[in-house]
Amino acid sequence: MTYLAHTAHTQFAALWLALIGWTLTAVAPGLVQWREWEVPDNEVVTSGVAWVGIWRACFNSHTHVSEGLISMYCRSISLTENFTPPEIAAGQVLMLLSLLVGLCGNAAGAYAMRNAYFGVKRVSLIFWGFITTGVLVLLAAALSLVPLIWNLKSVVTNQTIDFPSEFKLPKAPRSQHVGCGIGVGIVGSVLMLVSGMIFCSYRFPQRFKPRRDLGKREQLQQNGSAASGARNEEEVSFDGKDNPAFQSHEHM
Q1: Which residues cross the membrane (predicted)?
Q2: Rg of the chain's alpha carbons, rounded to an integer?
């Protein structure tokens, strides 16, 4: 049973980074504040601000409520709607895939960490467990970064969305800003990116190299010992003390 807990402290910290990053990435799709639209104050959007996420578009309104109260009006954004922009459709699909891949990566990291801290007969399970975790976490980070950066670019370039009339939103905002949803998602993706690189950088200590390499080294040592033994036998055969002719000459 081999224990490599002393070699996996950095990966233990990386596992926490991956877990925190995955949690933030899971929170981001549920936030409606991916885009903040400033719209003219009218009788419906009385707050003057609307939020557009990848699943809903919402705004606060005083309409049809008691005086002094505020209600949030929201409408769902469907993947199959004609007005849904491609960056929002990509966010709905890729963010869910990122969560699934990230969950698998965290599970693989927990299993590899368990092997490192509690011991395993085959040390290669620890190495490949960390590498698999790193690849999965990096893939999850990449899947989430694509829609996040795409939506960020749409906000910076002031792209509009042609909402239907039931959304009660104008076709174009007066101005728009990046919301906290994109920020939360980017922070989570960066944490997973760092975590994945740390997992992929894991290396065995010198004395725990895979047995295949040790077998080659031992074979070379045995070949060298055999060659050395052959040379020693040749030297003994030519030694004067073991030569019969030399011994007869000495007795004379």
Answers
A1: 12-32, 88-113, 125-150, 182-202
A2: 34
Digitized pLDDT (tens) for each residue of the chain, 252 residues in all? 455 556 667 888 999 999 999 999 999 999 999 999 888 766 677 778 889 999 999 888 766 554 555 677 888 898 888 889 999 999 999 999 999 999 999 999 998 888 877 766 666 777 788 899 999 999 999 999 999 999 999 999 988 888 888 888 887 888 889 999 999 999 999 999 999 999 988 776 555 555 544 445 555 555 555 555 555 555 544 454 455 544 544 444
pTM of model > 0.85 = no
Amino acid at 141: A
- Contact predicate 114/90, CB 8 Å: no
3-state secondary structure 84-122: CCHHHHHHHHHHHHHHHHHHHHHHHHHHHHHHHHHCECC
- Please, how many CA atoms are within 13 Å of residue 160, restricted to the half-sphere of its CB? 12
Structure tokens at 85: 């922009």
Rounded Cα gap, residues 222 and 216, in angstroms: 10
Cα angle 29, 143, 110 (rounded to 5 degrees) comes to 90
Nearest-angstrom CA–CA distance, 128 and 63: 59
